[in-house]
Design goal:
The complex is a heterodimer.
Chain A lengths: L2 H14 L2 H27 L4 E7 L14 E6 L3 H7 L5 E7 L7 H4 L4 E4 L5 H22 L4 H10 L21 H35 L3 H5 L4 H42 L2 H10 L6 H19 L2 H29 L7 H23 L4 H6 L6 H8 L6 H29 L9 H7 L3
Parallel strand pairs in A: 1-2, 1-3
Antiparallel strand pairs in A: 3-4
Helix pairs in contact in A: 1-9, 2-9, 7-9, 7-12, 7-13, 7-15, 9-12, 12-15, 12-16, 13-15
Chain B lengths: L5 E10 L2 E11 L4 E5 L6 H8 L7 E6 L2 E2 L8 E4 L11 H11 L4 H14 L15 H13 L5 E5 L7 H16 L3 E5 L3 H7 L2 E6 L2 E7 H7 L4 E8 L1 H8 L3 E9 L2 E8 L5 H8 L3 E8 L4 H10 L3
Parallel strand pairs in B: 3-8, 3-9, 6-7, 7-8
Antiparallel strand pairs in B: 1-2, 1-4, 4-5, 9-10, 11-13, 11-14, 12-13
The chains are: A mainly alpha, B alpha/beta.
Chain lengths: 444, 307
């Protein structure tokens, strides 16, 4: 094994054997699963039934408001003062009051509807109630203008427009998904992961270099190997640690995902069960279940239809490229300073483009083919994050190739410059380094 | 004359505008102990780093065993830097193996030799300990073992005694001597001049980036002789000084009853015999010797003189 191989081996093994690495590897997928599951679980756990009283003096809503699992409408007939008193009962969440206008003019009436409650109602409750009432007002208006409400209802049921976006390049290619929602989530997750990885492992490079300096072992080592070999060995070793962690996460997550598919989804929506539900369905009770099932299956299909064969290799490329680019700069900073507390002034300028590209990811998601997105995905400092965000939205091949070439050139340049700063810096002890001085080291 | 094991010819090195080494040449005989002396900031560490190929000189050439120095030669050199340490979180045995393999030893050979050294220093029980669990003296022993493990022909110690307590310093000094007796060539830099006289065969003195003095320790001391002698005698100091007349300069005198000690310098063409002739009638000579300047005196004198 060559000397650089020995260094890589040491850097890799000492980190992979650390307890924190093992814990992170197991915890990562669980945390990610947690992020996905907990909000859903919280939302479902929070579904207390809210009783909403409706006092309708106009008769327009005609007991027609649809209750949902969290909002239960009940209708009362009394004076408004009586009705308000019932709000004292804690079981009653709110009171909708539709006053009778002077001449049954619905357009006037719709503006005088009140929602009484003990405390401020939540926005989605208010919106839900508004929607429900609006529907009934529409029907009443239609009826008043001589339109058959059953006809309207049946038309509404039949018409369900869903738009499929087909970029011309992809026309006729059935495998490629152009699902905006899935692409957005995927882009955001991939960009976020790259950002997280570069920060996490880049600063590990820096801390590793500082450790060697403060332990005073660096001179012993560079009398055996070239400083550049030591720097690259460390950077590559830590890159392999990052890759190992990522691959373990992929494997574990994929394992959890398939386990989920095999147990929960298949169990719930096996062919027999579908048939059973179909048979029961004439009375309509099972329709919701079937809807739910179809939705779930579509989600699975959407996830499976993503071009993973492109996304995963690109992710690994941009992770490695971005990490090498920033890792070299982190190594240079580690070499230049004496201890952790001196790193701030040098780390900040390195992390600004990183943080900037993370912030810009939002803009890029909104307009993945815009000028900003194109430029940022080609400039090496921002491309690892921005290109990963854009990738699920179909990027022209030439842009991808250009961005990759630029990134390779970028990390060759930063590694070369960092090597020069590093090799001078690691032999300087007890000196506060300035930017000017670092610039001078480049010329040594 | 045999070829020197190591030679540096006309080495210059600058960092920006600062000239760290200016046309420095040294030559280290095989099997000798070579002292690299100089005040702080003179350029000793710069030269040592160049010898270890950590940095490259701007100009000048290095020869190892008669051939131009090349990277493969690091396997034949052992280096204990002034700023030295170990990975604190790593186990001792694993760390020694790692450093030995970086120096070019294969794994099994490194293990075999480590076992011998660990037995010698009675540190077998440290193998699985982390370095941070060791005391400073223990860690320094480990560093020493790592430096010499690959049995290098040339050993370089930069301030080997700095930071050592006297007991450990003595252990290291004895080890250096025993390595030298076994045939290793040693370069070491130090401030402790008494160890120079004790250990070194030759020296080079560097000051303000230039070599200002080099050669065998004995030759240098001879070169800096000041024709000064020390005499002990029994007799009367007054009659002694009168007898000296003008041919000798009296530098120092001590009296303790009729027991006297003086330091004098010959003037003109006077010889020791002339001196004896002059003073023998007035006193009984007990001892007489030439005062050889110590390396410490030579060092201070040369460094203080404007170059």
């Amino acid at each position: 094994m060559g000397k650089i191989g020995l260094i890589i081996q040491r850097e890799y093994l000492t980190r992979v054997r650390k307890r924190s690495f093992i814990i992170m590897t197991i915890l990562g997928p669980l945390l990610m699963a947690g992020f996905a599951i907990v909000p859903v679980w919280l939302a479902s756990a929070n579904e207390t039934i809210r009783s909403v009283l409706v006092l309708d003096e106009t008769g327009v809503v005609e007991s027609q408001l649809n209750s949902n699992p969290s909002i239960q409408f009940s209708y009362i007939r009394s004076s408004i003062e009586e009705a308000k008193k019932r709000l004292a009962n804690p079981d009653v969440y709110a009171l909708v009051y539709i006053p009778k206008g002077q001449d049954d003019n619905l357009i006037v009436t719709q503006r005088s509807i009140k929602l009484y409650s003990r405390e401020q109602v939540s926005l989605n409750v208010k919106i839900y109630i508004e929607n429900q009432i609006e529907k009934q007002f529409e029907r009443a208006m239609l009826k008043a203008n001589g339109v058959d409400k059953d006809l309207v209802a049946s038309i509404e049921k039949t018409i369900q427009v869903t738009i499929q976006n087909v970029p011309l390049e992809q026309e006729g290619n059935k495998d490629v998904s152009n699902d905006v929602e899935v692409s957005t989530v995927l882009g955001a997750v991939a960009g976020g992961l790259i950002y997280f990885f570069i920060f996490l492992f880049g600063s590990q490079v820096m801390r590793g270099v500082i450790e060697e300096k403060t332990n005073r072992i660096v001179e012993v080592i560079i009398s055996s190997v070239k400083p550049f070999q030591l720097m690259m060995g460390k950077i590559i070793g830590i890159a392999l640690v990052g890759l190992t962690q990522f691959l373990l996460w992929v494997v574990l997550t994929a394992g959890l995902y398939t386990a989920f598919l095999n147990t929960v989804v298949k169990e719930k929506y096996s062919a027999e069960k579908i048939e059973m539900l179909m048979q029961k369905s004439p009375d309509g009770t099972a329709v919701d279940d079937i809807d739910q099932m179809i939705e779930n299956q579509m989600m699975v299909e959407r996830i499976n239809s993503i071009n993973w064969a492109l996304i995963i290799p690109c992710f690994i490329f941009y992770f490695l490229g971005g990490y090498l680019l920033y890792g070299a700069m982190f190594a240079a900073v580690g070499g230049a300073v004496d201890n952790d507390s001196d790193t701030q002034q040098f780390v900040l300028p390195i992390t600004i483009p990183l943080i900037f590209s993370f912030i810009m990811a939002q803009t890029v998601l909104n307009d993945p083919t815009g000028v900003m997105a194109r430029w940022l995905s080609i400039i090496p400092l921002t491309s690892p994050i921005v290109m990963m965000v854009r990738l699920p939205f179909q990027v022209p091949v030439w842009e991808l190739v250009l961005s990759m070439v630029m990134l390779v050139l970028g990390f060759i340049l930063t590694t070369w410059l960092a090597g020069k700063i590093y090799r001078t810096g690691i032999l300087m002890y007890g000196k506060r380094v300035t930017w000017k001085e670092m610039g001078r080291w480049l010329r040594y | 004359m045999t070829t020197p094991l190591f030679e540096a010819r006309n080495i210059s090195k600058s960092y920006g505008n600062y000239r760290a080494l200016d046309d420095v040449s040294i030559s280290v005989e095989r099997g000798s102990v070579f002292g690299l002396l100089g005040p702080n900031g003179a350029g000793k560490t710069s030269l040592i780093r160049i010898i270890n190929q950590i940095t490259a000189p701007d100009s000048g050439t290095l020869f190892f065993d008669g051939k131009p120095m090349e990277p493969a030669h690091v396997a034949r050199i052992g280096y204990l830097p002034e700023e030295r340490g170990l990975y604190k979180k790593m186990e001792v045995g694993e760390q020694c193996l790692y450093l030995a393999r970086l120096r070019g030893l294969d794994k099994h050979e490194a293990k075999r030799r480590l076992r011998i050294w660990f037995e010698k220093f009675e540190m077998q029980s440290w193998w699985n300990k982390k370095v941070e669990e060791l005391s400073k003296g223990m860690a320094q022993k480990v560093q020493f073992v790592v430096t010499v493990l690959h049995e290098p022909e040339l050993l370089i110690f930069d301030e080997p005694f700095s930071g050592f307590d006297p007991v450990n310093a003595a252990i290291i000094r004895d080890e250096i001597l025993s390595l030298s007796q076994k045939g290793a060539t040693i370069i070491f830099s130090t401030h402790r001049m008494e160890t120079v006289e004790e250990l070194c065969d030759s020296i080079a003195l560097i000051n303000k980036s230039k070599k200002i003095l080099d050669g065998k320790v004995r030759d240098i001391q001879n070169q800096f002789r000041t024709n000064t002698f020390e005499m002990e005698f029994r007799g009367n100091m007054l009659s002694f000084t009168t007898a000296l007349w003008t041919g000798f300069e009296l530098l120092e005198r001590f009296t303790d009853g009729d027991h006297c000690r003086v330091r004098l310098k010959m003037l003109g063409n006077n010889t020791v015999n002339n001196l004896f002739n002059a003073v023998m009638p007035v006193c009984e000579i007990k001892s007489f010797r030439e005062v050889i300047p110590t390396m410490n005196e030579i060092f201070i004198r040369n460094v203080q003189e404007p170059a």
